[in-house]
Amino acid sequence: MANETETKAKAGAIIVPVTLFEQNCTLIWCEATKKAVVIDPGGDVAKIQAAIKQANVTVEKIWLTHGHIDHVGGAAELRDALKVPIEGPHLADKFLLDNVVTSGARFGITGVRDFAPDRWLEEGEQVSIGELTFDILHCPGHSPGSVVFFNKDMRFAHVGDVLFNGSVGRSDIPGGDHATLIKSITDKLLPLGDDVGFICGHGPGSSIGQERMTNPFLTGAM
Fold first, then answer.
1. Preceding amide of 41 cis, omega within 30
2. Exposure winner among 22, 81, 112, 139, fewest CB in 10 A?
3. For residue 9, what pLDDT is reported?
4. Residue 10: how many CB atoms within 10 A of its CB?
C-alpha cells in the first residue's frame, strides 16, 4: 500500500435536496482554490447558504441545467444574496425563465422571480470554477434548452433532468419531446464513456455504463 500514489481529490461536492420536488441542488468546488459553483438552486435558499458555509467555500457562480421551476426557483434570490453571475441554460429555455412566477403559481410556490441569466450557454462552450473546466453539451428533449456540464479530467457530468438512474427526464411538458430526448442521450451522453459518473436532478446518481446496460429507456425495454 505504501507504494501506491496518493491522488488528492480535485473537487468536492455536496448535494442539497431542495423544495417538495426533492431536487438535487449541487454545490461543487475546486479543492485547490476552494472556489465553488451552485448548480440548480431550485429553492430553500437558506438551506443552500448553510451548505456553502458548512463546506467553507467561496461561491463565484450559479449554473443552471434548464429552466424548470424546481431547478431555478431560488436562482434570482441566491444571485442577489451572493452577488455572483448566473450561467446557463441554453437560450431555448428563455420562455421558461420569463415565466418563473406563473409556473410557480401552478404549484403554490411564491417568492420566486422571472429573470435572465448573465450568460446563455451553447454547445461546445466551456465554463469553469477555480481550476475545474466543464464542457457544455446542449441536450434538448426534457426542455428545449437543457444543458449538461461535463468534466473530462474527472470523468464526471452533471446531467440535470436529461438522464436519471433507471429513467429519463419527462417529455410530456411544454417544450418536451421524447424522441429528441433519447437522441440527446444517445448522441451526446453515451459517447462520453461508460466510466463517466453523473449527478442528476433528482434521486441517486449513476454512471453512463450502468445506464447503457440497465436503463429500460435505453435498452429498448420501454
1. no
2. 22
3. 77
4. 15
- State residue 16 phi and psi, 5-degree precision: -115, 100
Q: Say whether pTM exceeds 0.85.
A: yes
Grid coordinates of 202: 433528482
pLDDT in tens, 49-73: 999 999 999 999 999 999 999 999 9
If residue 38 lies in a helix (H) or strand (E), which one and from where to where? strand 35-39
Strands 156-158 and 197-199: parallel
Q: Which domains does the chain have, with CATH numbers?
A: 11-219 (3.60.15.10)
Contact 53, 29 (CB under 8 A): no
Closest-CA residue to 71 (of 147, 125, 126) = 147
Helix (H) / strand (E) element for 81: namely: helix 75-82
What pairing do the DSSP bridges indicate for beta strands 126-129 and 156-158?
Answer: unpaired
Classify residue 109 by its DSSP letter.
Answer: -
